[in-house]
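Quick sanity check, HAD family hydrolase:
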Amino acid sequence: MGSTLIDESLAFNAFMEQWRISLARCGKQLTREELLSSINMLTAAGICEFDLLWQRLAPKGCQRPKWSHQLERLFADTKPCLQVLSKTYQLGIIANQAKGLKERLERFGISHYFALIVSSSDVGLQKPDLALFRYALDQAGVLARDAVYIGDHVDNDIIPAKTLGMTAIRIHQGLAASSPDDRLYPSDVQISKLSDLLEYF
C-alpha cells in the first residue's frame, strides 16, 4: 500500500530523523547522508523491511522508533487511477498493516474502490506468507492465474505472487525501488507510477 497508493516520502524523511536520533542515543553517530547511504546499500541488496534494516544498523538493544502515518499523502494519480480501474475490475488490497487499515483508507477517501481489503493484523498472517495470498484469492473468489498483483517489494510482493501463478507488476516507487528483481521469479511488468497501469488495462 505504501509507495504504491500512498506517498510516504515526507513520513519517511521524518522517520529517518527519528532513526538518526535514536541511533545517536545508543552511541552510533551518523549524519543523515551516512544513514541514507547505508540504507540505500542494504535496500539495493534486497533488504527492505524496516525491522531488518534496523537490525543491521543499530547496536544490540537499541529500540527502533515507530512509523507515524501523519505525514502520509496519496500520490496525485492514485484516486484517478482507482476510479478508472474499479469500473472494470474487482480491486483488492493485501497489506502488512496494523489495525485500522480500512479506517485509514476511508480517511484518504479511497476505501470504496476496493471490494476486498486484507490486512495482516486482521488475518494473523503476514506477507510473504503464501497463506495470506491464498486467503485473499479465496475471499475474492478468484483463481491465481486470473489475478494481477501490483507491489513494490520483491520479497513480500513479487515472489509470492509469482509463486502462486499470479501476474505480477512491480511499481518502482519508494524505498524498495532500487532492489533488483529475483532471477527465478521476475516481475511480468515494471512501472514507475500507478497510472502507468492504464496503459495495460
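Posting the structure with no commentary besides this: The chain has two domains: 6-57, 75-199.
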